[in-house]
Hints:
The structure holds 2 protein chains of 2 kinds.
Chain A: H1 5-13, H2 32-51, H3 56-72, H4 80-94, H5 101-112, H6 123-142, H7 152-164, H8 169-174, H9 177-188, H10 193-196, H11 199-214, H12 225-229, H13 235-255
Chain B: H1 3-13, H2 15-24, H3 29-43, H4 53-66, H5 76-92, H6 102-105, H7 109-119, E1 125-134, E2 137-147, E3 159-163, E4 185-194, E5 199-203, E6 219-220, H8 228-238, H9 244-250, H10 259-267, H11 292-316, H12 320-333, H13 338-351, H14 354-367, H15 372-391, H16 395-408, H17 413-446, H18 450-470, H19 476-485, H20 492-521, H21 528-533, H22 537-549, H23 554-568, H24 574-600, H25 604-612, H26 615-634, H27 640-661, H28 666-684, H29 700-711, H30 716-731, H31 733-749, H32 754-763, H33 771-798
Parallel strand pairs in B: 3-5
Antiparallel strand pairs in B: 1-2, 1-4, 2-3, 4-5, 4-6
Helix pairs in contact in B: 1-3, 2-4, 11-12, 11-13, 12-13, 13-14, 13-15, 14-15, 15-16, 15-17, 16-17, 17-22, 18-26, 19-20, 19-24, 20-24, 22-26, 22-27, 23-27, 23-28, 23-31, 24-25, 24-27, 24-33, 26-27, 27-28, 28-31, 28-33, 29-30, 29-33, 30-31, 30-33, 31-33, 32-33
Amino acid sequence: MEGPSPSLAVLRDRPVWPAAGRRQSGGEAETDRDMKKHFRVCRFIMETGVKLGMRSVPVATACVLYHRFFQRARLQAYEPYLVAMSCVYLAGKVEEQHTRTRDIINVSHRYFNSGSVTLECDKEFWDLRDSVVQCELLILRQLNFHVSFEHPHKYLLHYLMSVKSLVNRHAWSRTPVAETSWALLRDCYHGAMCIRHTPQHIAIATLHLALDSYGVELPVGDREWWQVLCVDVTKADIDAVISDLLQLYDMEAKCI
Amino acid sequence: MDRDLLRQCLTYHGESLFNKLKCEQIENPDFQAVVSDLCKATCESKSDGQDSPLVEQFIARKADILFCPTWKTATHKEEEEEQQEEEEEDAAEPYAIMPPMEIFMEVSYEERRTMLYRDLEKGDILVGRINNIREYGFFLTLLCTAGGLRRDIEDLELSALCHIREVPSTGSHDDPLSYYQIGDFIRAAVKDIDRYQEKITVSLQQAALSPGLEHIKLGVFPREALPIHYSRSLRAAADSRETYECILKSCHGYHNPSVVEYLLEKVGVSDTQPPSMMRGLQSKLFHEEDFASAIRKRQSASWALKCVRAGVDHFKHGRHVEAMNEYNKALDIDTNNVEALVARGALYANKGSIMKAITDFELALENCPDHRNANKYLCQTLVERGKQLEEQEKLVTAEGLYRKALSLDESNPEAQEALHKITETIQVSIRLREEAVAKEQEKATSSQTSAEKLRKILKEEKRMKKKRKRSASSNPSSTASSRDSSPSSSSSSSSSSESSRRRSKKKKKRRKRGSKRHRRISSKESSSRRSEEGKSKKDRKEKEEEVEWYPAPPNTSATFLNQKGGPRFGERDEGEAAENDAEDKRISQLYSLSAASEDEESDSSQTERKRRDGKESRTGERKNSQREERGSRSGERKSSERGREDNGKERRGSDSKRRSSLGENRRRTVSCSSAESAYSRTSHFNPEYSGNSASASKSVESRVRHDAPKRNSFDGGRYENRGREEVEEAKGEKDSRKGEDENVPGSGRKSEGAGNHTRPSSLTSVPEGSVKKDLPTNLLDIFNQIAQFKKGKGGGQRK
């Protein structure tokens, strides 16, 4: 599953990406600084995704690609924003919502130089485009071409449908549980937590937090609703996800 | 802030959250407005404080987002739509339809029953089996829900009554209940719920359904039509290994690739403006101009403009192809780029593709109605196009274009002038057309039958007498050509000058006559004289058509011609001969040309020839001459002078006829050619070939005899014979006339080539048999030979 060697050589020649890609010590904990950086880059991916009109799932894929890439590579080794741009491009392909590099470059350029004039279609533009495409190849190789992931979105929506029928319809329509849980789910992708937890757990955790936030009470039987939805989930799992998620919200205040 | 939601939340979380909220939202005026209300709710709190403080912290911090009224996007309307879809979903299953969760949760019987009576509403659909039929209705054992509420009710031992009034009667039958049997599956709408007595009544009337479910049919249904979620819940109940997850993943709908989009729409969450708890990702914070489509649009526009600039540069340096490429590139980049369209339009207009130019300009103006250059260019191009159309005689369309141009730019002098001009032209041409129509009608009546014609002829005789006095025998248009082609003739120059003098005289008279005629046609057409003079090309064409249209009966014309041609024969003087010679030259020239046109089978040579002829001959004269021809036929037995004049006229007439009819109507051509052959025999070749002929005597026989062999290399002998025969014919005129009459149609067919004509005489096997009958054909042959010769000569001269 390795990429063709010639392109690899080309990539190695480029100064943008130094030869050493792999993380030296896998067990090394993600430092706070790295996390903040990733948070900012993921914020960039999210914002770019919205401006590109991408749906939630491709954006999620882009984030997962990004996090998986930097799971294997050191943050210092690669330019994270370029990787993020390539991730967006690749995610568009993976999730069948093709995004053109030109749009990605335009939106990114505007993101970094807000209020600036639009890029001309000149050499600079084509160089940027080349680097995005080359980086995409790098990501593909770095991830061993495993680029399709299972996302919690599908689970969450089905859970929402099931939980909804447990609640009085008027109470449900009054409470924006769907919106909140969806927002929480999207926000999960700001950190590496989105690849640390299983999709079902994330879905259940976001739904749990949303229900909690509005004080929605579900009927209690012999089993909790979340136990039904996912057999192997425990309260601790849910709490871990929620704790990770809340940490991200804390980080937002610190980073931005 | 949504007070109810906040209260609900506080009731759930209790005091600690309230304190955190007060701390976090201290600056939020919305919260300050509701805070007093919320104290009570907090007091009622039943919270045991087991919730994580982190979650409470989160709620407190994000309270402004969570409880913001605009946060909730799903509306009740969407819920109704959702209900409507339920039935179709059962069939297609766009997402996994799961059995009710309480089956897996193993919620207690009492709680479920309470929940059902709490949540069941009027208009919901229940499914049950009939367990008892009474005279006042039937009872159902409820199995499941089928719309509005999705719950597991099978083991709740619920029963519902369907009163007989709620069973729709099918006409005048006695008992509507007779259709129902115990054990039938019934789909029914909830009519009423007695929550205290725990009694449910249902209805089979469609009107009892809630608005979103009206399309679902109530009544008996087969077992197969039971709701999917019910069958799945049966499966789950039967086997404890069938977990929620298992069923979910086994569902067809779960694997739908667009299940996320579908369900998002169903739950009412927007994916283009996705919600987020992050403050920096609130969709409302993003500027519209930062979005990809907006940037792309701007970028494309500037890029396209760059290309246009390059194209204009190319254009200025005369590199039109490169310029066009740049413009097309610009339009590829940015479709409907106004500048590119205007520039390309200008290039098209420059290259003569006026229609394309107009399209481009119009498209540009569509996108930018105030574009100055586009307006200006379009105006100019429209005028240009109008002029083109004017040339093509599409006057009305042209006028429309001028008007359009003026509507774009009122002050455009060119358009104003052109419009002014064309309005006049149109008026004139309308008049002319009316005139032409009237004339045609006149002609139609005049030439319908020979009897009528005769009457006409008699009528016109008087007029013709007058006319003949003034009309000159020469064809003015031919003088120029005769001057060129026959310098050998000593008298040609004088004759030509004479003829030109005559021409002017004649013109005047003709005018008078023409106006007279027009007055006769329609009194209001007094100005037709002028219009006749300044005729447009179209008009000319019309006239030509008239000429062509006029059917000249070959027999009669031949008769007339022969009758005329004979006696006039020896009576001509030298001057006339010279004139006739010029005339003849022209004819022969025409012949050569006609031969050429026959070769080519094209009309272009014809029209070319027509153009070469003077304007006069084209316009009034032809018509007139034709008219005169007709007249001359009637006045066949006139004095010699008059006859001669007629002769010239007639020749001209036949000439024009030939010109017009060549390649179109052979028969008519033949009739003319036969006539001409008669004339040629009588007069034409005399002076020119006087050098060739042994004597300058005007005897036709000798002329013909001498000419024919010279001109005809391949049929010499036979022609000599025929020449003699001709003499005979000329002498015994009456016979020959008769023979000609008979032969004209036949010879007409053969007018194309000399070979055809020679055959009958040499073989003498034609039905006519007699030599005399062949004679006119021979004459024709001779004439053709002459024409060929002339053609060759003319070609040589041209070279």
